Amino acid sequence: MENKAGIKATFGSIFLNIFLFAIKLWAGIVSSSVAIIADAWHTLSDSISSVAVLIGLKVSAKPADEEHPYGHGRAEVIASIIVGMLLAIIGFSFLKESIVKLQTKSEVEYGTIAVVVTIVSLLVKEFMAQYSIIIGKRTNSKSMIADGWHHRSDAISSLVILVGIFIGRYYWWIDGVLGIIVSLLLFYTTYSILKENISHLLGEGIDNELRDEIVLLAKEVSEFEMYPHHFLVHQYGNHTEMTFHIRLPGTLSIHEAHEIATSYEILIKKRTNIQATVHIDSLDV
After folding, report:
1. Would you place residue 157 in the very low, low, confident or very high pLDDT band (cuts 50, 70, 90)?
2. What are the strands, taking DSSP E only, across 25-184?
3. Where is the Cation efflux protein cytoplasmic domain (predicted)?
4. Residue 1 scores a pLDDT above 60
């Protein structure tokens, strides 16, 4: 159900981006504005990233199979990395264009149609950004969140053009300077997206909050102090695998120790939705 919500939101994103691309391109041609035409193509790039997200969501929804026993959840991580790379390309394009404007002392001239279209684009893209991020957080979809930030980058670029419309007539350099600021924001967003998702691919340690919760759950399973330790966590999208060790008295039979470990695994799955595998060490060792 959660995956379907993400797919529905992504389809909506693709159609809205194509619509915005069309009206921006029209406004840019009518007003002879190179900036708005470039921004139109920037918007179309959002559709490309949304397609990448859609593929990631579709693939991640596939069940586990013989070749992929842990499912296909990491397809979303790969899609997020693609979105991050697209943001970097767009950021570089903004930076290059802004530097050229400063070097040539180019002034920006926009008409009324350009103003209206830019405002519409700004409002629609910010709505799309917030919606994608909310859905992404609700469904734990990193690619949806990344796509939301991509929408926001387009909203920011529209804001830059809008500011340039009202201030550029007094300061010829304002559009170039704001363009550089936007490109730096895009690079920072790219860094954040890539850092988080590459970290997931490389593998991460358990966070303190989860470790504390697992330790507390041990008290509900057995009267013995089990000393949970040596945690390893593997994330596959919405599916998480965790292995760790516990210590039990060597006087317990194999059956008794196994019953305790199994009860512990079931409780962890129920409370945290994490598939745990518990290895038993003897306190006598």
Report:
1. confident
2. none
3. 207-281
4. no
Provide, for the chain, the percentages of residues in helix, strand and coil under a 3-state DSSP scheme, each rounded to the nearest 5.
70, 10, 20
Whether residue 212 is found in the same domain as residue 190: no
Please determine, for residue 124, whether its predicted confidence score (pLDDT) is greater than 80.
yes
Distance from the Cα of residue 267 to its chain's centroid: 30
Q: Which residues pair with 277 in a beta bridge?
A: 243
**154-158, long-range: CB within 8 Å, 24+ apart, which pairs?**
154/39, 154/42, 154/43, 154/46, 154/121, 154/125, 155/121, 155/122, 155/125, 155/126, 155/129, 156/182, 156/185, 156/186, 157/39, 157/42, 157/94, 157/182, 158/39, 158/118, 158/119, 158/121, 158/122, 158/125
The CATH number that applies at residue 259 is: 3.30.70.1350
When mean pLDDT is compared across 141-145, 170-174, 200-204, 237-241, the lowest value belongs to 200-204
| Strand spans (E) along 157-226 | none
Which residues form the domain of 230? Answer: 208-282
Which of 202, 225, 251 is a domain's end point?
202
| 78 and 127, same domain (yes or no) | yes
Question: Domain check: are 240 and 273 in the same one?
Answer: yes
| Residue 99 DSSP symbol | H
Which pLDDT belongs to residue 60? 67
Number of domains in the chain: 2
Q: What order of strands is seen across the sheet that includes strand 239-248?
A: 229-236, 239-248, 275-282
Q: Which of 215, 216, 221, 219 is nearest to 258 (CA)?
A: 221
pLDDT at 268: 94
